[in-house]
Automatic annotation (TrEMBL):
The keyword Glycoprotein does not apply. Residues 126-571 form the Molybdopterin oxidoreductase domain. Gene3D superfamilies: 2.40.40.20, 3.40.50.740, Dimethylsulfoxide Reductase, domain 2 (3.40.228.10). One of its GO terms (biological process) is cellular respiration. The lineage of its organism: Bacteria, Pseudomonadati, Bacteroidota, Flavobacteriia, Flavobacteriales. This is Oxidoreductase alpha (Molybdopterin) subunit. Residues 651-756 form the Molybdopterin dinucleotide-binding domain. One of its GO terms (molecular function) is 4 iron, 4 sulfur cluster binding. It comes from the Bacteria.
């Protein structure tokens, strides 16, 4: 089905091996090695002085918010080192002194650049000036800022309808930039506001909205310290949210227990050495998970049902296991939930989930008496066909145990990008929110569109069908992040104009519309000046707290503009006569915040209240207010078992992150915790499955997925034996996104099924001697 792309660009680069080395998976996460790794990256990318200065200001009250994940900062922050290895890598990546400037684009055509790997593209460094790729040309060339805005205005004026424009957001933007961007789209007349969260925690948002009345988590950081049991399901905090480990450590020191639910026994959950205290750097660390439940991919619902069934049986004896007063007062649906639960056969549930009964009994024993329970989760639950139902099943546990709206208990969807939650809070959403529209009419004096827009998967299909002409991206790397890379590439190419507001070069700059623009922007660590005034912006962390972020580094070049400024200038050039003073909005962020206070729900006096520790946005679950839900109560739900019809030679593939990447940005080629070095093209597979397939370590295979009769192939991967349930395999994204069909996604949230892709393994060559010789590390 693949069709050649315009300008001869490649969606994969050359698929070459990079000389793999294998070691044992590491059991201790973080520790001194983590700090050393972080500093190594920092020093290499930005020099010693620049990196020390910046690291000291990251996540401090007078500094900037870490550009990596959205985990909150403790109130009594450590004066140094309130960062983690990954934060330091993210910073080094942004503050690098390398430059992708006009000379690079003069020398390299887009086709030539696209032959490189994502890792190599990112290494070119920071984008330095606005660039245009004209129809028929193969090279980007400089364009003035005003020239770029004029070109955008001209294209927007040529649209037949506002819905021919699409505005994608990635979660690194500020509240101010995201709010202006959403406002620009709505002022134009469209709700086409797809967001990276559509591929990420959308299933959480939908599930939590339906059951608890708010699409966000309910816990605050201090709750984790107090919890009796924390469940960590489908999340790899040691790699993706390392600062969460210190919170888990506090929980454990207070006597709490941690249960990990994951097909893999991830390093951070085995043992953690806190790099922030001495014992962490030299001692033996803390054993994190008291219990590991190696669930099969997408069998969390059977596992939870079995646990709930066993708890229900115990409860029927003494009525002390479930919190009946809570259930009575705050929930609806108890009887139908219990009737449904009674139907399942325990043996069948046990077999489906693949976890030993002894381990499940241990989990039941831990949960039985506990009243303060927190469930943390991430992509392992959301990126399945039944992603929404997965989360609703864990909410059932919390509701039955009355573990909500009190200290030490609640929901904790661990968000990804550092401001992905804030972007949504200030209006990046494709559906219509009538209350917000009313406030827009009242305070901004324009008529917002009253029909639904497109999310990520709908946008891709619309582009592919030629329904969209202009595609804007506020950050991100849409092509590589989205599913079905070839289909998405063809979709993007249908556009007349594509515009990327970005910091670093990536493949979405190379696979473009007929005309393409790159608008280079300031990174979060950089000083954002308006004349002599230093500006700041605000962000919301994973727990709903809004605070300020002020860059401190000298910008990579003098020709970068801030995201709000770029959006405002684009709007100012396009609109001839508009009720909003776009020019001033691009200059004065206090003015943007005044509008945020009036238009976005829960924001009030943001400029002032975001100072210092910041403020929490309202959260109804914390007050046990479910008045917005049917009967005014939280909803216990009936969720069906996931059904997979795997052919006898098919495996279930999860596509996940290595330790050296941030989504599509590849910092390095090692996955230290999993013992893989200098290579990303690997498939983790159970030894017994290898035997059944006649495969040896480092054999070369293709992965093929077949959906709706279409075969998609990811070429050239190396077999790596791993402790993973039989029938399950794992590999890294974005390389494997070519396998994920664009039209298969979670019901109701439309999150692509990135964690349960059915694939066949096709051996194409035996292990090469040169690879084996260098593969063992001691
Ligand atoms: N360093 C770093 N930090 C990051 C990111 C990054 O790329 N690099 N990305 C950020 C973003 S945007 C996000 S959304 C988060 C992502 O954070 P995670 O969700 O932790 O990221 P993934 O690597 O996708 O890992 C998913 C985990 O789920 C498990 N899993 C897969 N399938 C299942 C299943 O069916 N059931 C269960 N129970 N577990 C399963 C996998 O084994 C893996 O441990 O991290 C954020 N932080
Ligand atoms: N198969 C598979 N696919 C997945 C996932 C998976 O687990 N498996 N995970 C999904 C998830 S959870 C997510 S969140 C998405 C991520 O999707 P995206 O958010 O679209 O991707 P990123 O890789 O985070 O985007 C990186 C790019 O953002 C730009 N950038 C970085 N910082 C800034 C900034 O401050 N401002 C601006 N304007 N640009 C900046 C840089 O140019 C960089 O190249 O991917 C999804 N795709
Ligand atoms: Mo994410």
């Amino acid at each position: 089905m693949s069709k050649p792309l315009r300008r001869g660009v490649s969606i994969t680069g050359i698929e070459e091996f990079t000389n793999i080395k294998l070691g044992d998976p590491v059991r201790d996460a973080a520790g001194m090695l983590g700090v050393k790794e972080a500093l190594k990256h920092g020093f290499k990318e930005m020099g010693v002085l620049r990196s020390m200065g910046a690291l000291l200001k990251m996540n401090q009250k007078d500094g900037f918010d870490c550009p990596s994940c959205a985990w909150p900062d403790p109130e009594n922050r450590s004066p140094v080192a309130e960062y983690c290895e990954n934060g330091a890598k993210a910073l080094a990546d942004e503050a690098t002194t390398a430059k992708a400037d006009k000379n690079l684009f003069k020398k390299w055509s887009v086709a030539e650049l696209s032959q490189l790997s994502d890792y190599e593209l990112n290494k070119f460094g920071r984008l330095t000036e606005p660039l245009v790729l004209k129809p028929g040309s193969n090279h980007y060339e400089p364009i003035s800022w005003q020239g770029a805005y004029d070109l955008i205005a001209q294209h927007l004026k040529e649209l037949n309808a506002p819905d021919e424009a699409i505005f994608y957001t990635s979660g690194r933007s500020s509240n101010e930039a995201a709010f202006l961007y959403g406002t620009f789209a709505r002022a134009l007349g469209t709700n086409n506001l797809p967001d990276c969260s559509n591929m990420c925690h959308e299933s959480s948002g939908v599930a939590l909205g339906e059951t608890l009345g708010i699409g966000k988590g309910s816990t605050v950081l201090e709750d984790l310290y107090e919890a009796e049991v924390i469940l960590i399901a489908g999340q790899n905090p040691g790699t993706n949210h390392p600062r969460m480990m210190s919170a888990l450590e506090k929980c454990k020191n207070n006597g709490g227990k941690v249960i990990s639910i994951n097909p893999l026994e991830e390093s951070g959950l085995v043992n953690f050495k806190n790099p922030q205290h001495l014992s962490g750097t030299i001692g033996s660390g803390v054993q994190m998970a008291d219990l590991h439940l190696p669930v099969k991919i997408n069998q969390d619902i059977p596992l939870m049902k079995l646990i709930l069934k066993k708890l229900a049986t115990l409860d029927s004896i003494d009525h002390q296991v479930f919190d009946h007063a809570f259930i009575e007062k705050y929930t609806s649906g108890y009887q139908s939930f219990m009737n449904d639960l009674a139907q399942y056969d325990e043996e069948d549930l046990l077999e489906r989930c693949g976890v030993s009964e002894a381990s499940i009994n241990k989990a039941v024993a831990m949960l039985r008496k506990s009243k303060k329970i927190i469930v943390c989760w991430a992509m392992g639950l959301t990126q399945h066909k039944n992603g929404v139902e997965n989360i609703r099943e864990f909410v059932n546990l919390l509701l039955l145990k009355g573990a909500l709206g009190k200290p030490g208990a609640g929901t904790c969807p661990v968000r990804g990008h550092s401001n992905v939650q804030g972007d949504r809070s200030v209006g990046i959403q494709h559906f219509v929110d009538e209350a917000m529209n009313e406030r827009i009419r009242k305070h901004m004096a324009f008529e917002p569109p009253a029909h639904k827009g497109w999310d990520v998967v709908e946008s891709i299909q619309a582009m592919h069908e030629g329904k969209a002409k202009a595609f804007f991206c506020l950050g991100g790397n849409f092509l590589m992040a989205a599913s079905d890379t070839q289909y998405t590439a063809e979709a993007i190419e249908q556009c007349e104009l594509t515009v990327q507001i970005s910091t670093k070069l990536n493949r979405t700059h190379l696979v473009t519309g007929k005309t393409a623009l790159i608008l280079p922007t300031l990174g979060r660590s950089e000083k954002d000046m308006n004349g002599d005034t230093k500006r700041y912006f605000t962000v919301e962390n994973s727990m709903g707290k809004v605070s300020q972020s002020k860059g401190i580094l000298k910008p990579a070049t003098g020709n970068l503009r801030s995201e709000p400024q770029i959006i405002a200038e684009m709007a100012n050039t396009f609109f001839d006569n508009h009720p909003l003073d776009w020019k001033r909005l691009g200059e004065d962020y206090d003015l943007i915040r005044e509008y945020i206070d009036k238009v976005a729900k829960g924001f009030e006096d943001t400029s002032k209240r975001s100072e210092g520790h910041g403020f929490y946005l309202p959260n109804n679950v914390r007050n046990l207010d479910f008045s917005m839900l049917p009967e005014g109560k939280a909803q216990l739900t009936v969720n069906k078992l996931p059904e997979h019809t795997l052919a006898s030679d098919e495996f279930m593939l999860m596509t996940m992150r290595s330790h050296d990447q941030f989504n599509t940005t590849i910092y390095g080629l090692d996955d230290r915790y999993r013992g893989v070095y200098n290579e990303r093209r690997v498939v983790f597979i159970n030894k017994e499955d290898m035997k059944d397939l006649g495969l040896q370590k480092l054999d070369i295979v293709n992965l093929n997925s077949t959906y709706d009769g279409i075969v998609r192939t990811a070429r050239k991967f190396l077999i790596v034996p791993y402790n993973i349930p039989k029938g399950n395999i794992a590999a890294y994204f974005p390389e494997t996104n070519v396998l994920v069909p664009y039209n298969h996604f979670a019901e109701r949230s439309q999150t692509p099924i990135s964690k349960s892709v059915k694939v066949r393994i096709e051996k194409i060559a035996a292990a090469e001697q040169r690879l084996i010789d260098s593969s063992e590390l001691n």
